[in-house]
Amino acid sequence: MRFARAGAAVVAHARHSDVSALVADITAAGGRATEAHADLADEHACRRLVREAAEWGGRLDAVVNNAGVQPVRGLAGMTVAQWREVVDFNLTSAFGCTQAAAEVLPPGGSVTHVASIEGRHPAAGHAHYSASKAALIMHARSAALEYGPRGIRVNTVSPGLIDRPGLAEDWPDGVDRWTRAAPLGRLGQPEDVGDACVFLASPMASWITGNDLVVDGGITARPTW
Ligand SMILES: NC(=O)c1ccc[n+]([C@@H]2O[C@H](COP(=O)([O-])OP(=O)(O)OC[C@H]3O[C@@H](n4cnc5c(N)ncnc54)[C@H](OP(=O)(O)O)[C@@H]3O)[C@@H](O)[C@H]2O)c1
């Protein structure tokens, strides 16, 4: 929605979820959008999604690798399959989509991965998740090096805790701790992340690449002592 408001034609992707309401909202507001479905753990699906997006729009200017899963599971007893699923969905999906996108992005094009503050600050039960997000940050920096000479920028946005319906009921203790600890005193909203992604994709960020933009209300600025 934030990209559409900034004037972009948007391909809204999910694996299975119905995103037709988002497409309808954008269209009703006078924008242009379509929906696409693909399991991004499959590299061929990444390529197909990128190709379909470029064909639909006539060109592809910006990709946001936002797909990810966040299961909570302790290391003791975690199976290799459970580890791999998180790495495949959070990290390998971004590798596949970025590689495919770089073949069609023009100079000035950009890729933004949605990482997490957990890429730098571990949380119990999230070893697989934190490791995948740390790797995502480093993948973006590496890709910025390799694609920079072609004018393609690659960055990450690292959100803190983002609000969703039911979060305060599901995790009252966590939400309470967060809002008391965060300098700005509130949870993030999806729009906070969307705006950061729009900024990084825009000409206003044309000299920013290989960077990690932390969007967390200041929580990681807190001293740890
Ligand atoms: N929520 C937070 O507080 C928070 C904080 C920091 C970072 N993040 C990151 O922000 C991103 C979005 O999080 P969210 O909370 O909005 O999660 P969400 O509501 O669960 O949405 C995740 C999206 O990823 C898609 N997805 C997952 N696995 C996929 C796969 N293998 N192939 C294709 N699509 C796949 C899902 O599609 P389906 O619904 O069709 O399965 C869904 O559209 C994630 O990368 C997450 O790690 C979230």
Automatic annotation (TrEMBL):
UniProt-listed CDD domains: SDR_c (cd05233)
UniProt keyword list: Oxidoreductase
InterPro entries from the UniProt entry: NAD(P)-bd_dom_sf, SDR_fam
GO molecular function: oxidoreductase activity, acting on the CH-OH group of donors, NAD or NADP as acceptor
GO BP annotations listed: fatty acid elongation
Family listed: Belongs to the short-chain dehydrogenases/reductases (SDR) family.
Name listed for the protein in its UniProt record: 3-oxoacyl-[acyl-carrier protein] reductase
